[in-house]
């Protein structure tokens, strides 16, 4: 069913266009991003139930103007047709004050004028069940049934946490040349199984996401048995012996490698700040010829797929690595202006009150031609790594570290049933990527978490890929 566009934003479009016309008398570039995002986060576990507003909820506007040197932004919550003149005058005063204040304190980075093509486009998403067609009570009841199903599987289970979030995104972007609108729903969820035997406690989880609504709960329900089973097997796990191994990384693990290795590393605002080593390696070999990596709102369909970014640039499919060669970075508008490149539609804000940065969208390795069973059969001794927990990367020096919940032992080309946990995957990014020797023929993505710029400025992203075989250092 078609998602509904925000009435709030539709009703404000005439006022926004008047505001842009008024401000254009003094500024050579004027644009307005309007956001109306609403959602709910549901949690069910043994000890209780929680329903709260989504972290991503927001409603408001940000005006961007060219101040003659750079770009100024002013955000506000409401716009009234009868107050256009006073709003315009307030913006003029704030921009003038900003420039005068900064000129006395810092050197302001100069930027060229944004050159926009005339574009008028709208995207309206579709889901199976619209949020207004299902009540909170029905959603919670479905989640309780998932929890109860898990507790029927094992006496070792001490808690089963079910999490589900659905978010309805409506945004408009208007300038003198652009009139863009989009409305879609994304959802995410997870099941987190905690088991205990005697004094040993272990856990496992399964994530879910997509441009979907409550139909995602059916997918969550189908994965309960497997998630609980893995958590129980972890009770017999042992620590991994540190060393270098031939490993197979699951799509979730290959996704976190893609995200950390050359996701953050090719965010081009880091190029402007001289904080990314990747800038020195464009058109050079940095990975196995089997490795092709994509990023872009138009490259896949998941939580970070959209028509246009938060600066009104249409989403694209950026081939970051092409058969082992580093080809391109991902950019917001200002970093593209500074570097004289074309923006890739990766300008994203945590909210309308925040600055836009170069940010990842759907980041993943492309599929190869190998079969998983052949990949396992090719390993004399190693591990199949799954269930990533977190990751870190140093864009300046190309170090990477990923926390993985467990590894399934492989000996003589077969899974032995032995399991190690937890596992830390570390290494030098080019060494890791150049060691990739097999890539499976199917890509899987997930966007159940969020990505911060450093330690803040969170946005939704997805990552993934096929199974990949590589030599990695484990600890």
TrEMBL record:
Residues 242-469 form the Metalloprotease TldD/E C-terminal domain. One of its GO terms (molecular function) is metallopeptidase activity. Belongs to the peptidase U62 family. GO terms for cellular component: cytosol. Coiled coil: none annotated. This is Peptidase U62 modulator of DNA gyrase. SUPFAM superfamilies: Putative modulator of DNA gyrase, PmbA/TldD. One of its GO terms (biological process) is proteolysis. It comes from the Bacteria. It comes from Clostridium carboxidivorans P7. The lineage of its organism: Bacteria, Bacillati, Bacillota, Clostridia, Eubacteriales.
